[in-house]
């Protein structure tokens, strides 16, 4: 695992603070960025390199972990990537704030309906949970005794699970837990969906070294969770390359569900009735390895990739499903600016809420409901799976699995050209953009293309080897089959 610094735009100084200076609205853009905001950024560990009064923003150098923590601060409204940078707009004091990804999956009403994952046991297998009880968004979770168990499989004799730190990534599990269960009552900020589930935490990975022994820790953690009756497990861990000993590295063709850890994950699902939600991994932009990592390749586990926020296109880093798998991987995807580690817990939190509604759902039923709620379903691909899940659709299916939603339109294209006029009621702004997934089979993507949201007439010329094209107009989908 690596965590390198990157230039980051943090849009700042709340407009409310500027208005308190008595400035007319037209002069707000000329007001200086509020000093208290800049001081807050510095205290959070960000190194400010530039300040823009027009953008009401500061440019900083921050690691991905620091940027993720900044995103969760009360003064940050949202975080979105902009040409390789991050942008975090200031957070105004609105009622019941949620993070952008929760807005993307349409989960705003879950809190209104009292869906918090209450009574559901959730296991989290990760690197470490350093200082988790001290995080503002997790204090209530610990104070109300929702963290029911902890076990360190890396260093069992360490003791003091939340104050002992062995590596620079020992707070990774803490951040994942925040994405699962975080809620800051002071700012009415909901970070995760399953704020009242019961959690069992397992540390199986050492952040400063990588070896196959960690896969054994993972399997032992699964067995421990199974013995406690845990039926929903989240893990943002994955293994492919980067082992300390090069001979331990996997080869791409081994991402076929045959690894030790993948076989255990598949057994957990098929024989033990556990629903495993696993991040796809962040190797999608690597030259020699673009695939998801094991155990995300296991049949039956719910693998989650990453999209951007505005168009729902695959993030460059998000791991791709190998073409030789007989099933679609990843299964779903949603927004994260900093890695698939923070998409899996979003879907796990959604799953916990569905189990609260219907505790009798099997692992297979729960997984299928989540996939059916994806905006591309049933036309999944190896970039973003069945797409971005829709929480309200999933809720309806959890209550009545016989519901049938309108299927995407399938059209046949003769020759090498295809044209289509977008219906006026197919909205795209705020609901995903216009995206083409150009494929060499029903599921395997050749390339993805993002078009202007103003596009009304689409003219396609068939690519070499292209057999299918998925056209996404927001949440409306058209599947083109080339003849």
Automatic annotation (TrEMBL):
Gene3D superfamilies: Peptidase S8/S53 domain. Keywords: Hydrolase, Protease, Serine protease. The active site is at residues 126, 172, 341. GO terms for biological process: proteolysis. It comes from the Bacteria. Pfam families: Peptidase_S8. Residues 117-387 form the Peptidase S8/S53 domain. GO terms for molecular function: serine-type endopeptidase activity. InterPro entries: Peptidase_S8/S53_dom, Peptidase_S8/S53_dom_sf, Peptidase_S8_subtilisin-like, Peptidase_S8_subtilisin-rel. SUPFAM superfamilies: Subtilisin-like (SSF52743). Belongs to the peptidase S8 family. This is S8 family serine peptidase. It comes from Nibribacter ruber.
């Amino acid at each position: 695992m690596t965590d390198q610094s990157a230039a980051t735009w943090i849009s700042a100084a709340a407009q409310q603070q500027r208005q308190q200076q008595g400035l007319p609205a037209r002069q707000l853009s000329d007001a200086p960025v509020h000093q208290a905001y800049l001081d807050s950024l510095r205290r959070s560990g960000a190194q400010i390199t530039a300040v823009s009064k027009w953008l009401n923003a500061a440019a900083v150098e921050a690691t991905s972990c620091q940027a993720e923590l900044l995103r969760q601060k009360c003064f940050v409204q949202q975080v979105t990537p902009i040409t390789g940078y991050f942008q975090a707009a200031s957070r105004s004091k609105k009622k019941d704030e949620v993070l952008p990804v929760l807005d993307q999956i349409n989960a705003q009403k879950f809190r209104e309906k009292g869906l918090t994952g209450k009574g559901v046991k959730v296991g989290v297998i990760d690197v470490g949970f350093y200082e988790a009880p001290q995080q503002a968004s997790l204090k209530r979770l610990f104070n109300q005794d929702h963290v029911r168990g902890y076990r360190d499989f890396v260093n069992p004799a360490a003791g003091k699970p939340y104050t002992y730190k062995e590596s620079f990534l020992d707070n990774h599990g803490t951040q994942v837990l925040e994405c699962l269960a975080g809620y800051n009552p002071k700012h009415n900020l909901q970070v995760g969906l399953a704020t009242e589930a019961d959690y069992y935490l397992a540390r199986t990975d050492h952040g400063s070294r990588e070896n196959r022994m960690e896969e054994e820790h993972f399997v032992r953690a699964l067995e421990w969770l199974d013995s406690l009756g845990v039926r929903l497990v989240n893990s943002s861990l994955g293994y492919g390359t980067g082992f300390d000993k090069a001979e331990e590295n996997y080869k791409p063709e081994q991402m076929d569900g045959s690894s030790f850890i993948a076989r255990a994950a598949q057994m957990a699902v098929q024989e033990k009735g556990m629903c495993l939600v696993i991040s796809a991994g962040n190797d999608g932009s690597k030259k020699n390895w673009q695939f998801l990592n094991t155990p995300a390749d296991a049949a039956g586990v719910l693998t989650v990739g990453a999209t951007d926020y505005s168009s729902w296109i695959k993030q460059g880093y998000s791991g791709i499903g190998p073409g030789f798998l007989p099933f679609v991987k990843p299964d779903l995807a949603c927004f994260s600016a900093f890695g698939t580690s923070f998409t899996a817990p979003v879907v796990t939190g959604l799953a916990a809420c569905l189990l609260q509604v219907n505790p009798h759902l099997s692992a297979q039923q729960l997984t299928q409901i989540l996939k059916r709620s994806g905006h591309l379903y049933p036309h999944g691909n190896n970039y973003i799976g069945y797409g971005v899940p829709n929480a309200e659709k999933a809720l309806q299916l959890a209550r009545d699995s016989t519901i049938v939603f309108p299927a995407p339109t399938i059209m046949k294209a003769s020759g090498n050209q295809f044209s289509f006029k977008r219906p006026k009621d197919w909205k795209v702004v705020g609901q995903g953009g216009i995206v083409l997934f150009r494929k060499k089979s029903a599921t395997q993507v050749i390339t993805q293309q993002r078009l202007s949201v103003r596009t009304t007439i689409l003219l396609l010329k068939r690519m070499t080897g292209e057999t299918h094209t998925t056209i996404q107009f927001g949440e409306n989908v058209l599947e083109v089959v080339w003849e």
